[in-house]
Specification:
Pfam families: NUDIX. With 154 residues, this protein is α/β, with parallel strands linked by helices. The chain is built from 3 helices and 10 strands, in the order E-E-E-E-H-E-E-H-E-E-H-E-E.
Length: 154
């Protein structure tokens, strides 16, 4: 029996003009996918602080983190993840994938994508392809806890 590590993460769902802020992680021959910015909580930072830091590191943008929208659980063979997704709004900065933190994570592109732009792309987390847009249109009233899923890439 192997020992499974646990990771607490936070991310931001940043929308502007009907588009979501996404970053593209790509390693030729291994993976190529888009995801909302986010990552592991460090030290004693709050979930909200982690979400804002991850947006800054991965995209160059500064955001104001708002309410919790989703709690996502997923796993790879050696790690169980719990990720807290917050709604957020842009305060400033310049959109770029050129920061050292982004390059280390194989982020090759940042973009504002409309729902229609998702076609033909691997987009994570999976709720961004459908549930998010329906809930947003209805007004996200309370956080949704999503069922555990297996990661496709790690």
């Amino acid at each position: 029996m192997s020992i499974m590590q646990h990771r607490i993460s936070a991310g931001a769902l940043v929308e502007q003009d009907g588009c979501l802020l996404l970053v593209r992680h790509a390693v030729p021959g291994k993976y190529d996918f888009w995801v909302a910015p986010g990552g592991g909580v460090q030290g004693e930072e709050s979930l909200e602080q982690a979400a804002a830091r991850e947006v800054r590191e991965e995209t160059g943008l500064e955001v104001r983190v708002g309410p919790l929208a989703y709690i996502e659980e997923f796993h790879s063979p050696h790690t169980r993840h719990v990720k807290f997704w917050f709604l957020a709004e842009v305060l400033g900065g310049t959109l770029s994938a050129d920061r050292a933190e982004a390059r280390i994570e194989h982020i090759v592109e940042t973009a504002w994508l409309a729902r229609a732009d998702f076609a033909g792309r691997a987009v994570f987390p999976p709720f961004l392809a459908g549930d998010y847009w329906e809930r947003r249109a209805a007004g996200i009233a309370a956080p949704v806890r999503l069922p555990l899923r297996a990661m496709q890439f790690w």
